[in-house]
Specification:
This protein is mainly alpha-helical. Helices cover 60% and strands 0% of the residues.
């Protein structure tokens, strides 16, 4: 399945925003079942800040990809390798945005015990989407992608090359 377009049945649900929404719904359900109100207002403020940062990263990445005239749809063949803007600091700013939104929901909804769910979401995003995308980018852009990947962190950060 990795790298292929979902075609029938429930497979159309296999998209990053659906996985992120599932994490947010899980946090919402957990907040009804077992809330920890220990974070108070600071937790809510941090939650909103993280979610807004995630949305901002996503928007900046989509604008950068649109400017480069390449797809933002997972599992489609990219027309360009985008390394400018937020892509200078993250190979996957949209997926990082997904994680920040889920983290924001966890903190806003006062369920910090659910933070390990972010590791599960990161693993799902990597195995369901990122690995296939990186394979297509390697096939399409070869050494250019390899160099960019060597200096730009999967989630965040610049490395000396």
């Amino acid at each position: 399945m990795n790298g292929a377009l979902p075609e029938r049945g429930w497979l159309w649900l296999d998209w990053p925003p659906v996985w992120t929404a599932a994490g947010v719904v899980l946090a919402w359900a957990a907040s009804w079942l077992m809330p920890w109100r220990i974070l108070g207002v600071p937790g809510r403020v941090l939650g909103v800040a993280l979610a807004l940062t995630g949305l901002g990263l996503m928007l900046a990445a989509v604008l950068e990809m649109t400017k480069a005239r390449t797809t933002v749809v997972p599992r489609r063949q990219p027309a360009a390798l985008v390394t400018s803007g937020v892509f200078e600091w993250s190979r996957n700013p949209i997926y990082l945005g997904d994680l920040l939104i889920a983290a924001g929901a966890v903190l806003w909804l006062q369920v910090p015990w659910l933070l390990p769910m972010l590791g599960v979401l990161a693993w799902v995003l990597r195995t369901r989407f990122i690995d296939g995308e990186e394979q297509r980018l390697t096939e399409s852009f070869g050494a250019e992608f390899t160099l960019w990947a060597a200096r730009t962190g999967r989630w965040f950060g610049r490395k000396p090359v």
